[in-house]
């Protein structure tokens, strides 16, 4: 292909540009759409096509230059410029679909050769290497036609006006298109044919009626070319022409059919359904703070993928964990396996995203704490409920707490209640989760990172001082009661080195009574029968000479008790930091062959991120749980890694005993392919995973001697056991800091960085 270079000087803007390609020639007259020579900056976010996996060198964010509504070119940036653009997007100096890239910036130094010219090089806009991007960016003179409509300055999501949406089924010049008819697409996306799990139904559920994705049908089209909220468009180029040419062609042909350029006044959101462009490792992409999203192949039928992409239209960034920007699987803005299914996506957003969306704005829904302005108050306590109980919350407990850092890295605390509208959430199930945002204080575009997951009695501490406070921040969950209606978590937030678990007592007032000390009781007798803790199995990688060792996705196996035991954790081989899900079969008994692909036969036991137990080892251990197995009974377990490989040894038969001792036996099970849990199990070959079962022997034959010790009781529920004379209305309140009295050392608890 001939290289075409057009110089856009700081001092002279070309009045006309030669064609970049035949298919785009019709747009060249409007290529420079502003008098000063500029374009609107767009930010396109891409979602990987495989759940839980981010391919090597996958580019999740790409910046584009939009010259008019039908012509877009990529911005060609060096690594530092791309980082600078991302930073400006995060701190608010750059607003996607609003800020402009100016080819003739008035503040540029004409003597600086690096900022002398912008080039349009072979269908991309190249910024001079090493140039400071801030010199080229300015706020648009007037806002673009909004993809959403704010009223009186409030978040647009709060208002229950329907959001009008259109799906475009694209047919290319070779006749290639997705297999679904317009009517089927309408049903998958909007539920017009009776589908009960759709993008529309889940958005309505998560927003509690504040957001309705309504199908809007153009007039005058027959059923062969359209359905409710869907039209067919045929373009004169193949999909292999690439992202920018296909997008331009689709907008052109849609404008001919509709009589106006998209989105026009008729639509708030437009979803384009295509077959694969080149580089097909993506499922979908969407433009930030905009109206347009694009879906490849079958992903237009998957509600979770649509909600992820619409999240970008809502100006949401990704939700990550550890080093993966998509790794937070408690949130639709991650890449959880729950997104990738026609019946998937029954989950909502995390606390940081919920704060930004503004769907929960009633009194008490959001608690805003600023430790930098605490005036001597170093402790806060209160109660959280999950989004699935938002309408079942008579005491008005909070949905999310924001803790301001003063350095643009704020924390958001919420209860990840997995039920109802959030029932397909597979990480940090029913735990208190702590999320950190980088930029915009949770009020605008910002990547979020999952930092902590707390079970009852757990505590998270900041890695060093928190923000500008000069103190370590501790967040604890002294009580989580899922049997209550609604299920709730008590949360204690504390600055300083003397933080511990508070004692919480229900009182019939409008304040929560809180005592900062733990009252010890001394006893020479244990309150529970002593147990012996032990383990069986080997999760280490085998040494040389062992054959048939392969990477797998997970392992299903049986544990048979020779005496009464309680399984408490499982260790496994896989890597440094591992996302996992752990299931147990419902009821006692070994797994059957049909159970391997039947998820309904299993219940989720634990999930989250496990880290290696010992440096230079790749053995990690799950979160704690309890599963009792009576003497002579068998319990089946299934552990699966998300985005990581496990290890299994392929040999023998399913019922072979791999490990045994005087307490239990572990039988060889079956290994599963990498990817989604309950997949085809590698052709159902026997594969014993590198696994170790940690357990307590209830009938310990040689119990340890127990000396007098301090016993810490579980904090009672904040809900009274009998109705008080005055109906309590418990609210989250700031408690004056009370100088700590000497207290016993609390139990060992996890600490996250």
Plain-language structure description:
This protein is mainly β and 753 residues long. It is built from 7 helices and 44 strands. The chain has a 15-stranded mixed β-sheet that branches. Strand 26 (503-505) and strand 27 (513-515) form a beta hairpin. Helix 3 crosses helix 5. The longest helix is centred in the first third of the chain and has 16 residues, at 243-258. It is globular, with a radius of gyration of 29 Å. Mean pLDDT is 76; it is low at 1-35, 142-159, 501-530, 543-547 and 701-753.
Number of helices: 7
Q: Please bin the fraction of helical residues.
A: under 10%
Shape: globular
- Terminal CA distance reads 51 Å
Q: Quaternary arrangement of the chains shown?
A: single chain
Helix-strand category: mainly beta
Strand fraction equals 25-35%
Report the biggest beta sheet as strand number plus sense, adding barrel if it closes.
15 strands, mixed
The unreliable regions are: 1-35, 142-159, 501-530, 543-547, 701-753
Q: What value does the average pLDDT take?
A: 76
The count of strands amounts to 44
**Computed Rg:** 29 Å
What brief labels describe this structure?
753 residues, mainly beta, 15-stranded mixed β-sheet, six-stranded mixed β-sheet, 9% helix, 32% strand, disordered N terminus
